[in-house]
Amino acid sequence: MARIIVVGNEKGGSGKSTTCMHVATALSRLGKKVGALDLDLRQRSFGRYIENRRNFMQEAGLNLPTPDYRELPEVDPASLAEGENAQDLRLTRAIEAMDAEMDYIVIDCPGSHTRLSQVAHTLADTLITPLNDSFVDFDLLARMDGVTGRIRGPSIYSEMVWGARQMRAQAGLQPIDWIVVRNRLGAQAMHNKKKVGAALEELSRRIGFRVLNGFSERVIFRELFPRGLTLLDLKDTGVDQLNLSNIAARQELRDLMTGLRLPSLAVGF
């Protein structure tokens, strides 16, 4: 069975699609068969990222390791059984079609609460929640007292993850490995950065997730998307010498992939 990696965050602009693409492509480069689904049926940033990659490879005459992206299959409403949800069935069929042939399935969720996103969270073996490194995005995970700095309680999103964990437990499935990834980290060890880090560590002990550093704010990520490229593709596309920023970014990706602790995966790039 494929291991399902879900990338979810109900706020936009946290780097979900960039995280999805780099994780999925890194797995492909490590020799794994990787399926890809995008549940944001309007924006489709992850899907368009992979489409850009395919177009670039065709024009450049390259063959780069690439996730197998597929659209959700359509469902005839007349074929639904009583009480059956069409969106549930679309996602179930998409995963069933890839499950036997893939090692991993990477799923990008929309930056809002949808039925598809909710179901995907219950299917996650690994849940990655990218978070901009600020208290604005911290609010996605928990409500905080602005005066005392104390955590008042979990957010609606955290409660949804808790519900997904309960459903998996009732079904006898392995617990979700929930990982909060701190993106857009500042280069300086600023006071606010330390406070966010301390708050995340405290919250991680209370509601059960691991904290990893993700990607710093870099121009390179905006330049890669139109060609569908990742940090790991630069040498294959004619960039013989990487600058210090790109080398640092590759190390961030290497650290992230190692920190995910995916079974039977040796990170070697």
TrEMBL record:
Cited CDD domains: ParAB_family
Record-given protein name: AAA family ATPase
Organism field: Rhodobacter calidifons
InterPro entries in the cross-refs: DNA_Partitioning_ATPase (IPR050678), MipZ (IPR015223), P-loop_NTPase (IPR027417)
